[in-house]
């Protein structure tokens, strides 16, 4: 931008506008191609299934002309690019086909179960960030100390442990042996008729209903699976916080702040962490996406009626529409969070803004 | 080695190596010293070597058969002197199954690495060296795959291909190549304009030869580090697929599938599910420690000797 100084302000504004437009255009291209790529992969998966989708509907004893007619009605006689076009059109209008298992439209099923997954991942991320950031800061400030080593080991184990196994052990210890938490599921059957979901996020619903007995029960159910997911995001968040903080603490403005005589507490939490916060937002968004994915295994262990359990149940019954529908939804949220974190980074960090 | 008063260590660390071999050995020695100075990394290496040893000599080490159990007398027994880790619901010795299962774990990670790393290497070096629209297209595809949720996509792949350990390996490989392509491209970009490439080009080497013989070898070391770091993730994904019944099928002693079958007895006979999970934890921890250590040791930019 060295030439910009010699230009008139009007021309500079012009250039800035065109640069912004260009950035928006490239962002749209990225979103569109990524999403199309996801659909291409699920389309491909749906076509390589050894189960013939036509025979699955008419049965393998149907006469040839019925099979042929159904094939035409379903569009399977068309060339692949036309089939793909129809597929994309269907998905974009929210049509994922019908679930063989529940006989509902897959979209309706997903809408019903998705809040449970979101709630679990949200509570998990809150736990992970609330513990992971202080631990990461501690490890960075006391670099090389015993505390640093312990944080590192906690993180490494988080990266190495099979989540479903840890979930089983947690159920065994905290539910079966100690009785501290509730068992599998989201809410006790006692509340089945008295509790009315409004948003689908049960903790929020209980508050809205002022049903404190239900709130307590829901909390007892969510705390174990959410802590488990929280541990995984803690492993990631604490590691990243440590490296961001080490980077900030070596900067010159920290030396300047020390020279000014600011307290160490103020320097660490007020200055260094504040500057590390921008990349941290990205990390938290990414860990949230990771938890949505991790929910597939966690929900299976805890019989948590969310999208993950829906996908695995459908898998066991070869219900491909439901599996691919769930894959598209998780994939879309995943892509959206990925791009959002990218965008947030640009918005929050003035240095990356287009000048 | 003209000077006989030189110790072996001095010979290795000399500033003026007499031969290419000496220089290489010296380099390797420095890397090795830096690696072993990191205690955690050495522990990781030890775990991996133990895994290799157990997998290689499984028939000699296993005290019982991994497939045939004593259904009449030995169902769901706790740990004892005959059955060190207890027995499962089929009366099979859990330790023996774990020992044989190490072969399956090794098979998965080796095959995934053999399939995924070359794909990534090829895509990355081709994109980085060719540049222009080839680079743009290849990297867009890579980024698209990078933005996908890996486990869920692997699930969908296996659901389509049918359950089984081979299909699980294919599914994991198909979802794990993009980071390798990114790394290979970054390495390619740093060397593509260097003098030695220009020299090779002047000597009339074809682009194919330049990429294969002069660029790919330079990408290998950072790729190895990344693959090692990914091994833990691969093991966990494979175990997750096995747990969901989509990976190795019974009676194969795959660790994830063993946890799944022990799940029914978790409240009373917890060891049936606990033992294979501990094995997964130890092995993936080993790979993570080793990967961390390798990264630090091979990172030549942060100080030469």
Tell me about this structure.
The complex is a heterodimer of chains A (355) and B (305). By secondary structure, chain A is mostly helical. Chain A is built from 13 helices and no strands. Chain A has helices at 9-48, 53-58, 64-73, 80-92, 106-141, 146-160, 163-177, 202-209, 212-249, 252-259, 264-302, 307-316, 320-348. In chain A, helix 7 (163-177) packs across helix 9 and helix 11 packs parallel to helix 12. The model of chain A has no long low-confidence stretch (mean pLDDT 84). Chain B is mainly α and 305 residues long. Helices cover 71% and strands 0% of the residues of chain B. Chain B is built from 13 helices and no strands. Chain B has helices spanning 8-13, 20-36, 39-56, 58-61, 94-130, 132-146, 150-161, 165-176, 178-191, 195-202, 207-243, 255-262, 271-298. The longest helix of chain B has 37 residues, at 94-130. The chains are: A mainly alpha (355), B mainly alpha (305). Chains A and B meet through helix 1, helix 6, helix 7, helix 11 and helix 12 of A and helix 6, helix 7, helix 11 and helix 13 of B.
Q: What layout of secondary structure does this protein have?
A:
The complex is a heterodimer of chains A (about 350) and B (about 300).
Chain A: H1 9-48, H2 53-58, H3 64-73, H4 80-92, H5 106-141, H6 146-160, H7 163-177, H8 202-209, H9 212-249, H10 252-259, H11 264-302, H12 307-316, H13 320-348
Helix pairs in contact in A: 1-4, 1-13, 5-6, 5-9, 5-11, 6-9, 7-9, 7-11, 8-9, 9-11, 11-12, 11-13, 12-13
Chain B: H1 8-13, H2 20-36, H3 39-56, H4 58-61, H5 94-130, H6 132-146, H7 150-161, H8 165-176, H9 178-191, H10 195-202, H11 207-243, H12 255-262, H13 271-298
Helix pairs in contact in B: 2-13, 3-5, 3-13, 5-6, 5-8, 5-9, 5-11, 6-9, 7-8, 8-11, 9-11, 11-12, 11-13, 12-13
Main location (chain A): membrane
Membrane topology (chain A): Multi-pass membrane protein
Family (chain A): Belongs to the binding-protein-dependent transport system permease family.
